[in-house]
## 1
Amino acid sequence: MYVVQIASECAPVIKAGGLGDVVYGLSRELENRGNCVELILPMYDCMRYDHIWGLHEAYKDLGVPWYGGEIKCDVFCGWVHGRLCFFIQSKSQDQFFDRGYVYGGEDDPMRFAFFSKAAMEFLLKSNKRPDIIHCHDWQTGLIPVMLYEMYQYHGMERQRVCYTIHNFRHQGNCGNEILEATGLNRPDYYFHYDRLRDNFNPFALNLMKGGIVYANYINTVSPHHAWEARFTDVGYGLGHTLEIHQSKFSGILNGIDYKLWNPKLDELIPFEYDVDSLTDKAKNTKALRERLFLQDADKPVIAYIGRLDQQKGVHLVHHAIYYALQHNAQFVLLGSGTSAEVNNRFLHEKYFLNDNPDVHLEIGFNEELAHLIYSGANMIVVPSNFEPCGLTQLISLKYGTVPIVRGVGGLLSTVFDRDHDPDHAPEKRNGYVFYQMDNHALESAMERAIGLYYDYPKEFEQLVQQGMECDYSWKNAGAQYLNIYDSIRYQYS
Ligand code: ADP
């Protein structure tokens, strides 16, 4: 099968969160299974160009219709760790992708509407006719809309779209200027409740809703989150739309790429190890302490890695730091805030804790340091408000770092409480789970984890090993996506 992935991120070349990991990992799995996979991405100025091999111009002066005129683009092509990627560089005065950031512009809907339009023009004009176009999140929600409403009449009538939603919180709300810019026009038609009109704001279009309505298949990234999105508030207003389109909606649990995330093969950590050589993990703990100027003490290192954002339960992250320090543990945080307010709060905390030899807060995004922390920490906290899948707990399990998670979304589907889990036998359990969104709930799980570490070290090691033996590779998800592709491939549009 010929699959083209269109996305705003692909690890490691451009990654703001889990989306980048998923786009890369799924593409590799699909290729390993004998499919032809290509990726289309924006050409950001802030990409890790050192991860692109053989970058060269593939299409010069691609004319992309925009507001009745056109914007010229150059399309570059290169390999990102073996994946063939096309990067769209616009020559617009708006400098859509030359701003030193991936997300965060006030005109983000316009930037990614342009990217979606350019990606479709590129497919059309370069005569690429994939069986499946797989697009992701609100940034590419317009792809199925444009395919169905425009491009199928220009020779793309056989292409089918799978649309994956990684996060319902960000939906791409915008005004009707997007319709004019992309040439979709007809505001009366698109502002209909059955099409793109936002479910709550009658004056806004919702790009994610467009993706849901028009794609041939939609999924989110864990079965439990698929249920939550339909029936609870974490669908952020799209529950009814999902209900209407339930026959083409499901949840598929993400995997992680065990070539990139594997303590036995990881070149970014000082000591490689596996389930049979855990003493080498302890050497990484020592290296982590040295790198972050923590004292070398016989205490467990508890970590947090992730965006510092309301979704991630930042107030509980904050509480976890102090709880760890009060209970004879060390704490390492690596995170970047999505708002200045949260960033400043943690910067303030960093300043306050600066002289404490048991804690280090690193505010920013640092892929290399993330690998060292996964390998050196003993436990990781993931106290999310909601979590569609979550990759940090999956990576932690592989690195023998015991996850302490809140029981929501994908966390609930992947972490099984050591002490209480009605569905999994003790030898299948791999971490700690708490449910309420308050300090006491978090403390109850942290207390049990720290207690086991100190009082029953053999049992703690056993829990570490059980986690490392879990298989959260792309094998399962790859097979499920291929089944979906197959089921929509010959579907009548
Ligand atoms: P998200 O909601 O951000 O997509 P996930 O758990 O699905 O959360 O994926 C997060 C990914 O981003 C993981 O690979 C994690 O290691 C990485 N990550 C998050 N924050 C940072 C950071 N500050 N530095 C390095 N890697 C990070």
## 2
Amino acid sequence: MGKGYYISKHMATAAMVLAAIALVTIIALSVVYNREKSRNAAKFTNSTTSPVPPTPKTSNEPWDKYRLPDTLTPQYYNVTLWPRLVMNANGTYIFTGNSGVMFTCVKTTDLILIHSNKLNLTLFKGHHAKLTGVSGVTAPAIKTTWFQTETQYLVIQLEGKLKPGKSYWLYTELRGELADDLKGFYRSEYMEDGEKKIIAISQMQATYARKAFPCFDEPGMKAVFHITLIHDLGTTALSNSQEIKTENVQIDGTAVTRTIFEPTKRMSTYLVAFLVSDFTYISAADDKGVLVRIWARRKAIEDGQGDYALRITQPILEFFEKYYNTSYPLSKSDQIALPDFESGAMENWGLVTYRETALLYDPKTSANGNKQRIATVVSHELAHMWFGNLVTVKWWNDLWLNEGFASYVEYLGADHAEPTWNIKDQIILYDLQRAFSVDSLTSSHPLSRKEEEVNTPSEISEMFSTISYSKGAAVLKMLSEFLTEPVFAKGLSNYLNQFAFGSSVYSDLWDHLQKAVDQTPGLKLPYSVHEIMNRWILQMGFPVVTIDTRTGNVSQKHFLLEKDAVVDRKSEFNYEWFVPIKWMKRDQVQDQLWLLQKSAIHKPMKVSKSEWVLANLHVSGYFRVNYDLGNWERLLSQLESNHQVIPVVNRAQILDDAFNLARASIINITLALRTTKYLTHEREYIPWEAALRNLNYFFQLFGRSEVYGALQAYLKKQVKPLFEHFGTISSNWTTVPSGHTDQFTQIIALSLACSTGVEGCRELTKSWFKRWMQNHHVNVIHPNLRSTVYCDAIAAGGAEEWNFGWQMFQKATVAAEAVKLRSALACTKVPWLLNRYLQYTMNPEKIRKQDAASTIGYINSNIIGQPLAWDFFRANYFYFFKVYGTGSFTFSRLIGDITSRFSTPFELSQLKQFKKDNAEIGFGSGTQALQQAIEKTTAKIKWLAENKEPVLQWFTSESE
Ligand code: BES
Ligand code: ZN
């Protein structure tokens, strides 16, 4: 989830330079903040559309429950929609249409509940719908209908009963707003050739299909959809299936086109998609005749920006067909890049939608990081075409299986398309370590939730969390490694075959994997797949495995970031796991063991003083490792003398484990800091990125303290050889290395060297940017280095540089280039520029809604921007809650970003006060994120009290 941020992370480090003005600004701005806050409080009390959640209902009426009753099942829908792409007299955009659903009664009832939200339904004889019987059945008359807004139902009470086994037809005529809210059927706007263009597009996941047409809007309620779109002449309409008929007709005196689509396969409502636009496409057909098309703005396609996506789609589809041992289930695969899109991409079956940055690649201006993003996102979404779409989880409590799975296999698909990238290794950075950081808090939660715990749209949105995505990916990877990939794939393919076009729960997958294990002679597991995996998914957290090489003792303990944290949540497994441990010794002997209890002696791990043990080899397991001090010392000297003996992902993991063990006060901080000493020899990306993240944490903690100077000096020393290395191999920065990840390391070298003041670095970046400013038609800066260079130059400059950047941002026709500028604009150190920029995030004409939250995040990662962003966010909390509060990733990410630097008791009390102040408005899908922020801050305060001195001393002595 949200991996799109990562290029800017290198930059974040670059942005962290201390300035005295920050303090002055904080004081000045807290005055503004208090004023704004009271103004908002007044606004809020006067508000008529109060978002205050209703007091918990004691009502037992079926329409007060968020889950549909089990009385009816949908068979198919006929949906006709007509989006109007011109503003009406009231200044709004609308769509009209009608929708019919044939459903079968399973249990006798006199009540129909169907989801419908924000739709205006035509009255027929005073009721919002028409009901008829199918095949000669007589339908009971409608007694009354109304909208239950809290649970988002159209409620239809009947005079008589519906009969089991009989089918009925429910028909509605509707009108809805085609708003720019990124949800349901919505509109997106962009400029082309000086003309404003409008498109209509949909985003249904998780609970927005009901905003486009009345439907049984639960993932397990699969049906067939017959879709028709009415649209302006000259525009194209797309949906999940192939168009079967396109004709020009007159409707209400208007000449329009009507496009009728083939009936879809049986599928969930959240995967339905519609699009009306004047986009164009490039296409290819594979051997089996599956049509692949990439759609985007006309200009982008003409520029060739869709070519890369088209090139990788077929190999990835072919890979998954083989991997799942199941053909692609549809006859076409459309992928489309949208100017306004809330998440990164969405796996609508047959019509996958993307943010422009996740699909469009321009070789002239996009970085290789942008290319990697496209390969992984396309792979992720295409993986869902089977896992998620063909077989769907019954209810959102099992979302982790869907998203965790796609987040794991996206690496396999991308690796097939780009075999030279070694991309599979990166899972440890972008999933495993990311999951560790939230799963080591007491506010974490088990991967799998109970069905009854997930009900409201906000609770559903919250399921799209780092735990679901990244922990899901990490434990599935671990599973596939201890089963071996062929056994895993076999079980998987049987599972897909059994549940095709239907839905399942996670234990169905365990069943099929177990069968595959049973059919594999020679594969011995200590327990069943259920018994092993349930410990990883039904209890939160993960173990730290401690190996004492003096005795061979191996033990496990729940790893918690906060030393004295109290875990309230009970676990039926007592926070113990069955841990598959691969390990090696210095003499290269490799071995594997299962740790099945709290502690056990494993003789081969008792080694002599000249040996060392390295556990979690290739980081295949979801756990951290600690050793006795002697073994740590020996690993450290191995890193110093010849680090290549240790696999590259393990080098990164040693760093990340050591830093986190130190943060949890399990080992000494100086030991962790010493793992960074060997970096002067390190040339690989993954260890550098891991180091950078952990050091970044120090920048965040010490950015305003006296430790900062010594930290800078130390890092400068460490990065210098890397900077010089790349200077040499790139003919003084005029070329980029050929290796994919070497290009990432080059970016780290440049950004860290510039931010720590390595001689010659800033001169380079400044001169490149200046040349561009002098002639903005010629940008000589290599696309890979642009984020860093732009950020550095804008940080070093003033209004002139900022305004130039802003101008270039507005002119950018490649989305990836626009993001680089948008994030660089947050690097300025000038408070008024930052504040004006913050204001822009509330103006969609300046910063698109889809980009507002990440822009605030960028500003927040600038040490001077951070207090401004926090004040701004609090002052405008009501606005942000209203616009983003129920969205899936946006709000939780925003809260996470904006609190990420907190580490003092004063900041903690501000955070708690913020929670109190806004309790009435609520925190929507950011509720967990707020809890995590409080816990993280508390842990940091405690840690700082004990560790600040030794850290200062260590950096001081090491930088001399
Ligand atoms: N199904 C999600 C998109 C989504 C998320 C829709 C939340 C509604 C609510 C999609 O498969 C996804 O996971 N997209 C990721 C990108 C992916 C490569 C991790 C995203 O949007 O960031
Ligand atoms: Zn996904």
